[in-house]
Structures are given as structure tokens and as C-alpha cells.
Amino acid sequence: MRFIIMSNGSGKRWQNYNNIPKQLIDIGHETLLQRTVRLLKAYAAESAIIITSRNKLLETKGAELYKPLQDSLEIDRFTYELIEEDTCFLYGDTYYTESAIKTIVNQQTEDILFFGNSQRIFAVKVKDAQLMKTHIDIIKKLFLSGEINDCKGWQLYQSITGTPFGDKTISEKYFLINDITTDFNRPEEYELFIGKTNCGSEA
């Protein structure tokens, strides 16, 4: 299995809070990227880990930094040229619990499996690379033609499962993670998390 930590978003809602990209915020004396890499190494020691970003500040020990060929749309976080069989995409702005990483590493799929809670997707595990690429092409075309309003992980899930666009209804191909795993889009989300968890200690 190869793990891709997607860190090539624009970060507009983060607004360079504390003068750093959100992937480098400190929780428990390590950055989000350091934490994710460390946990992946613990449960998938022999696997390759790639961080996708054009920002050299995101270079992290234990992972390779890769510059995506495309990053104009949000769906481009799933770096098209890196989609292969046995690839798992994770978000660079996400705090993963150890239990969540263990589940993501160990859970098997026949084609594509999404991990997340009822509102947010945390990872996408790919066994069927062509299926993934086909549906990325579909939603990009729909978005660029104005037929759908967003072009990101949820639309990918909806396209693959045939559920209505815009409706976060969870059906098949989705593994619910019910712990404190969460992502950070805005500074207030990070500050609220820190306040609730005593600087990110496991709940």
C-alpha cells in the first residue's frame, strides 16, 4: 500500500493563521504531517508515503514531497497521476487518532472505500485505480459545465455510489470513524479542538 497525504489545497479559509500552513500546526509537540507520517510508519512500516504539495516547507522526514501536475480544482488533491492500485489518500490538514490510522491501514476494499464521519471524509482507499479516475473525470466535467456546485471528495463519493449530488447520505463503500479524528479548515476549529482535547492528547 502506498499512502498519499494530500497537502496541495489553497488554504483560503485558514488565512495563514499563525503564519504557517495548517498542515504544520503543532499538536502534542509535532505537526499534523509529522503525526500522520509517524502513525503510518507504525502500522504500515514498509509502505511508501508521499506528501503532495508545491510548498517546500511541508517536507517531512519519512515521506517524499511530490509536486502535483494539476491543482486548479479541489478534486485535484487526488493527484491524478499518482492514482494506482493499492493507494490510499489522506488529508494533510487532518488530526488522525491512532485508532483511525490503524483502521484505515488494515481495512480492506475490493475497489474504493471512503473513511470519515457523517460530515467529513478523512481518507479514500483505492484498489481499482481506473474506477477512481473515471469518476474524477465525471465530476470534473459536471462541475466545469455548471451541473454541480462542488468538485471534491463528497462529489466523488456520490458519483461512485450513485447517491444524489449535494446530499451527504452515507450508504455503501463508507467506513464510519467515530472518534475525535477531525480536519481543520478555519483557525477557530483548531482553537476549539485544542481547548477540548488538552493540546491533542488522545481521547
Per the CATH scheme, the topology name is Spore Coat Polysaccharide Biosynthesis Protein SpsA, Chain A
Question: What's the helical proportion of residues?
Answer: 25-40%
Sheet with the most strands: spatial strand order: 3-2-1-4-7-6-8
> Helix/strand-derived class?
alpha/beta
**Count the helices. How many?**
5
Structurally, how many domains make up the residues? 1
The count of β-strands is: 9
How far the N terminus sits from the C terminus, by CA atoms, comes to 28 Å
- What is the general shape? globular
What is the CATH level 1 assignment?
A: Alpha Beta
Cα-based radius of gyration, to the nearest Å: 16 Å
CATH architecture: Alpha-Beta Complex
CATH superfamily: Spore Coat Polysaccharide Biosynthesis Protein SpsA, Chain A
The average pLDDT score comes to: 91
Summarize the helices and strands and which ones pair or pack.
Layout: E1 2-6, H1 32-43, E2 49-52, E3 64-66, E4 87-91, E5 94-95, H2 98-106, E6 112-116, E7 121-126, H3 129-144, H4 153-161, E8 174-176, E9 182-183, H5 187-197
Parallel strand pairs: 1-2, 1-4, 2-3, 6-8
Antiparallel strand pairs: 4-7, 5-9, 6-7
Helix pairs in contact: 1-2, 3-4
